Amino acid sequence: NERYEPQAIEQKWQTRWEEAGVFRAGKRPGAPKKYILEMLPYPSGKMHMGHVRNYLIGDVYARFFQMRGYDVLHPMGWDAFGLPAENAAIKDGVHPAVRTRENIDSFKKEIHSLGYSYDWTREVNTSDPEYYRWNQWFFIRMLERGLVYRRFSKVNWCTGCLTVIANEQVKDGTCERCESPVEDKELPEWSFRITKYSQALLDGLDELKEWPERITSMQRNWIGRSEGVEADFNVHGSDARIRVFTTRVDTIHGCTYVVLAPDHKLVAQVTTPAQRAEVDAFVKKMAAISKTDRTAEGATKEGVFTGAHAINPFTGQPVPIWIANFVLSDYGTGAVMSVPAHDERDFDFARKYTLPIKVVVQPATGDKLPQGDALEKASTEDGVLVDSGEYSGLPSAEARKKMGEKLRAEGRGEPKVTYRQKDWGFSRQRYWGTPIPIVYCEKCDPERKGQPVPLDQLPVRLPEIDTQTVLTGKGEPPLAKVPSWVNTTCPKCQGPARRETETMDTFVDSCWYFARYLSPHYDEAPIDPKEAQRWLPVDVYVGGPEHAVMHLLYFRFWTRVMKLLGLSPVDEPVKRLVTQGIVNGPDGRKMSKRWGNVVAPASIVQKYGADTARTYVLFAGPPERDFDWSDDQVEGAFRFLKRVWTLAVQHQGVAGSTHAGAYEGKALEIRRAAHKCLKRVGEAIDRLSFNTAIAGTMEYVNALYALGTAETPAEKAAMAEAVRILSVVLTPFAPHLADELAESYGAKDFTVTQGWPEFDPSLVVDDVIPYAVQVNGKLRAEIRVAADAAEADVRAAAEADERVQAAMAGKTLRKFVFVPKRLVNFVVG
Ligand code: ANZ
Ligand code: ZN
């Protein structure tokens, strides 16, 4: 065909790849492996450009490594449970399973249309009982080990979704998903004890050298390790003790009041009758405000005096006990010793309520801070202690150590590490998720702790439901409205029992899907440990940076659990993480329905073909960077591929040409251009610099045009090789065109299977320049080396020259002089 018509060739190749199973993993058991993975999508029906880009980054890598001889695993699946399908069902009555199925089908068609190299034999659907059965299995195994437990706690209740949402999903007191207000609510909640792994997850970050620093530092902050001291303040005239957590015990002599969280358990006990009314009113007011609002950055500090006093364990002096909004009950001990001179919040609070301010740390610089109310702002740096009894004169760090030891020795406290990270509450009042495999029997379990469903009874399947009556979005969890499902028998006494009606957070599903791909139908365990040995960890994981502190932390936790359970040998799920940038519209705003700037992938594929869509998106910028959509550049990518096609058509006559003799002149130029391109593109892909890889290919095509028609046998053979190399370097980006081109030149196999040839080093040397070689300042030889050759290489080439060797024979080298691009001089004596 004379003209480039992507629509005529792309589907054909997609079908051929699929039928030949080109992208199946496990074909090369002896070869090194690469596991390339992109975050599995929530099947929302239509693909957007963000998906296209995400999967392309992985796809280029997967094809490239396959060409380099690796056994590549590149799977795809569906994060199929979740709120959108359920919310849609509440609106229009379509069962979530039906909608999800439809969405998957259309999403999958789009994926196919872009020519991605997935091994579809490993497809996973998290809403399939064959999958979620293992969520239940993990739940029970973790329950046995105390890694799952049920707690009554304050949860974030979304008033729009009518469900519990994670801390991470609360943005400024509203739900990240529906933007409705979020309230605190006391509910029993199933939780994973992820905090047991806080330190391990923190330490593990040090090993993740190939993760973006931005992500690891977000995780570090999220885990929030804090080294400090717990100290007991006795309540004056009572045997109650207030334990505080402080990172600055060195400032304890400057503590002028103590603050309890409004919901601290000692509040009622310590409050004096005179203060009771005021305290009760404040506690009530605080309970109505969500935790996030109460402690937001800009929130004004408020508090009330309890009437009671606490005794400073170091000075023996009493200080007033307050309650205030800025102290959280679920961090540290829920109580703080306030040091207004050295803490900003305490300072503001002291100013507002005229509490004393006392400087006990002077700056190490020698500047002297004024005492008391003359202080203009808190001095928060470490320094040297003053007015601190026997600790005066000590540097802060040393004082902290000594004071912590003293507290421990006296049984009044101890050094303590605190983490900001919380356990992960994962029960949801929703239908479209994994049922929690628990039953409650009044006879065997009067406390309603719950008994696990026996492993051999898994999966606990979601019941068929009448959507209209069950998915109403109101009241009890949907599953509670299905009596035939809720009522069951107790595994212990066989008497009547009720099932747990809550389902699991969908983040559970994405915790281990990457391991399920290894053996998607294995039915003895979630993963076949043999396959885990072969494939884990994931070598390259591509996804959005917005998952930094949820999915990307949760699945690290789960990976450790899988190791604990003997399923997998690795501590960390992923070696290299690539977080892709955003695709904006031509207006520079994130593509969104709201801005009306969405470009549908299907429209681009239809108009220009998948290869143009792929080439454009990859050429638009480095994977990690955002880019703005440009119709002109899409056109540009299309024109480039047309030029490739025309070039191939023009040179069709050289197909199959070979040549046994030397290559000189134009023939040599053709070969040099080809091998340089091979080198450059390979190295760029390795570095993830797909845009420069494509730029290199474009320059290569220009060079071939400039070289004109191949006339001599040598030129023809060189050109045949050059076209073959063109099909190689195009394969990761424009795979359909690459295969079509290769086939029209007589290739008998797919380009991806034929592999990535090694470039010939002698052909990629750039310009060669002469160097004068002197011995004791006298010209002895002239050598020719690459213009960019390093000193050592030039020297080696000079030393290899016979005339130079003769001039230096029997002498000792005293000095070697190197003048780049000009000369070298051996000083001998
Ligand atoms: C006295 C002090 C003096 C403090 C000083 C700081 C500076 P990080 O680093 O985040 O762990 N704190 C402790 N528990 C709290 C709670 N439940 N709610 C609010 N604040 C709390 O912060 C530890 C510091 O935060 C602790 O050290 C405590 O204030 C406060 F010059 O104690 B500090
Ligand atoms: Zn029972």
Total of domains = 5
The CATH architecture term of the largest domain is 3-Layer(aba) Sandwich
Helicity level: 25-40%
What structural category characterises the helix and strand content? alpha+beta
Sheet of most strands: 7 strands, mixed
State the name of the first-level CATH class of the largest domain.
Alpha Beta
From the N-terminal CA to the C-terminal CA, the straight-line distance is 72 Å
Mean pLDDT: 94
Would you kindly provide a written description of the structure presented here, covering whatever features stand out?
The protein is α+β, with helices and mostly antiparallel strands and 829 residues long. It has five domains: 195 residues, Rossmann fold, CATH 3.40.50; 126 residues, no CATH class; 195 residues, Isoleucyl-tRNA Synthetase, domain 2 (Alpha-Beta Complex), CATH 3.90.740.10; 140 residues, Orthogonal Bundle (Isoleucyl-tRNA Synthetase, Domain 1); 61 residues, Ubiquitin-like (UB roll), CATH 3.10.20. 37% of the residues lie in helices and 19% in strands. Strands 10, 11, 12, 13, 14, 15 and 18 form a seven-stranded mixed sheet that branches. A four-stranded parallel sheet has the order 2-1-26-27, with helices on one face. Helix 6 packs antiparallel against helix 7 and helix 23 packs antiparallel against helix 24. The longest helix has 22 residues. The mean pLDDT is 94. The structure holds ligand ANZ and zinc ion. The site of zinc ion has 8 residues, from loops.
